[in-house]
Write a structure and sequence with these properties.
By secondary structure, this protein is mainly alpha-helical. The protein has 20 helices and 14 strands. It binds one RNA strand through strand 6, strand 7, strand 11, strand 14 and helix 11.
RNA sequence: GGCCCGUUCGUCUAAGGGUUAGGACACCACCCUUUCACGGUGGUGAUACGAGUUCGAAUCUCGUACGGGCUACCA
């Protein structure tokens, strides 16, 4: 109870950070903040063959964007460093050898070719993927089958070898998962996982246990894909540090794509992003779009992720980060996997945009407009514009279409919308309307509308038939906020100029 | 194949033995609006199947089916 809450997210820096990863970060973060604990980010880079340049920096950018920054990490420092496993290499061999000495592990000298042969030779219809396990290990080249002297000589000669855990022949290993309750495994069907690789680096299995111990991790949350190897970790804890010191486990349900587990490799093939932010593969230069660039607000992103597998038991769906911290509980996380629904994700974003203040939207929208080539942005006007179009934008990127015409006169008109009903009477109306507008001193939406309707009445034309042409003149298309509001924001000179220009286009 | 996990509307989910099985997204209709949205009202739509326990089961147990994950000197 008095134990300090310490949780960690331990990604391997091999590419983009996908939805499931961010949600794992989120749940860790929320749990830590709720219990005044620490959220640690540990880089699991023990596989040097999978090193990807820039991936670590990318992960930090994603967390920063999402507002889920760790308390301790390679970047933020902390008392339990280093936070990169490659820099902790020296820690692991000692523990692996202790396991060997205690009879819980052994040296194995099998070459990759020998392992392949084993898999091939023992493959049967009943057992399509044979494992290096208790039934096989006595047929392989390891310190269990070799004479002690021979093993020793090989080790001294520097023969390539790994250290494998010696799984008990028949034991039941069980533990209580915070989400699933009691889960048990029969050790006879778990293989002798490699703990220490030939290059001296630990595998995940050894590293996660040693580092969680050394970093005093109190609760370990990870994806459900780790459940099958949990018995290995439990046993390692038992042999090395004692079950009483083991963190509490919670295996999070998977986030599924249209066909099973969301895969990093599938990138944007689903028609929606899977990464938090744009990821450019350093080798292939291939770009995979992220939620950020797609136009998601970080608040919406974490909100929707939080609700994918968790709810607070009420009907509330929109939660700020602070509310999530207050209300989150790991016990209310679902045990079943959740299929990601992009439509609902967009709804969350829309809700957040509608609730955002104009000023908080201003920065990101301005950047988007500048990217679209608009350079004369007046901040006061932009703020008004955002207030006017906000309800119409589901993604941040929608602001470009919805507000660029405020800063740039249309160069194309939806002529189909006016042409068929266009006539001389309407043309005359707008010619007089231009003069009418010129006379307005109080340039506000209500006065413009008033003048418009009065003139329509005098000329005996239904105002409704004039509004659409007016809109096309100012906007270029059939969209946008109420047309008189647009005219008001545009200003007298610009509004009149657009009418005059459009009149020429319509005539031609 | 083996092991593990899971299964309530199309999707995300509520209901921890007693409800007309609730909400949200999406979809449909209507209202509002002579643009597009927002908003409002209503509607279609689910407990995988079979046994058992119980006065009573979506809820507990077992079996079956289906789905997913794992089965590397990757994490």
């Amino acid at each position: 109870m008095s134990k300090k809450i310490r949780v960690r997210f331990a990604p391997s820096p091999t590419g983009g950070l996908h939805l499931g990863g961010v949600r794992t970060v989120l749940y860790n973060y929320l749990f830590a903040k709720k219990h005044q604990g620490h959220f640690i980010l540990r880089i699991e880079d023990t596989d040097q063959s999978r090193y990807v340049a820039g991936a670590e920096e990318y992960i930090f950018s994603c967390l920063q964007w999402a507002g889920l920054e760790p308390d301790e990490s390679p970047l933020h420092g902390g008392k339990y460093g280093p936070y990169r496993q490659s820099e902790r290499k020296d820690n692991y061999r000692h523990y692996a050898e202790k396991l060997v000495n205690d009879g819980h592990a052994y040296y194995a000298f099998d070459t990759p070719e020998e392992l392949d042969r084993m898999r091939h030779d023992f493959k049967t219809e009943q057992n399509p993927s044979p494992q290096y396990d208790h039934s096989i290990r006595m047929k392989m080249r390891n310190s269990l089958t070799l004479h002690a002297e021979d093993s020793k000589k090989m080790l001294e000669a520097g023969t390539a070898h790994v250290i494998r855990i010696k799984m008990p022949g028949s034991e039941t290993v069980s533990f209580t998962d915070m989400i699933r309750g009691e889960v048990s495994f029969d050790t006879s069907v778990v293989d002798d996982k490699v703990l220490l690789k030939a290059d001296g680096m630990p595998t995940y299995h050894l590293a996660v246990v040693v580092d969680d111990y050394l970093m005093k991790i109190s609760h370990a949350f990870r994806g459900e894909e780790w459940l099958p190897s949990a018995p290995v970790h439990i046993l390692l804890w038992k042999y090395l540090f004692g079950l009483e010191n083991m963190p509490q486990w919670a295996h999070l349900p998977l986030i599924l794509g249209p066909n099973g587990k969301l895969s990093k490799r599938d990138g944007a093939k689903y028609g929606f992003p899977v990464f938090a932010m744009n990821w450019i593969d350093p080798v292939s230069k291939e770009l995979t779009e992220g939620f950020k660039e797609k136009g998601f607000l970080p608040e919406a992103f974490i909100n929707l992720l939080a609700l994918l597998g968790w709810n607070d038991g009420t009907e509330q769906e929109i939660f700020s980060k602070e509310e999530l911290i207050e209300k989150f509980s790991i016990e209310r996380v679902h045990s079943g996997g959740a299929k990601f629904d992009y439509e609902k994700a967009k709804w969350f974003n829309h809700e957040w945009i509608k609730r955002s203040t104009s000023s908080s939207l201003q920065g990101p929208v301005k950047i988007l407009l500048i990217q679209d080539g608009i350079d004369n942005i007046n901040e006061v006007i932009l703020s008004k514009v955002i207030g006017l179009v906000r309800d119409r934008c589901t993604l941040l990127t929608d602001f470009v279409q919805q507000s660029s015409f405020f800063f740039r006169a249309p160069d194309k008109y939806d002529l189909d919308a006016v042409k068929s009903k266009w006539n001389d009477d309407k043309k005359k109306f707008f010619q007089s309307f231009t003069k009418e507008l010129n006379a307005i001193d109080n340039w506000e939406s209500a006065f413009i509308e008033d003048g418009f309707k009065k003139l329509a009445a005098i000329q005996n034309i239904k105002p409704g038939e004039l509004q659409l042409p007016f809109r096309i003149m100012l906007v270029g298309g059939k969209f946008g906020p109420p047309v008189f509001d647009i005219a008001a924001v545009l200003g007298k000179t610009e509004a009149i100029a657009r009418i005059s220009k459009a009149l020429e286009v319509f005539a031609g």
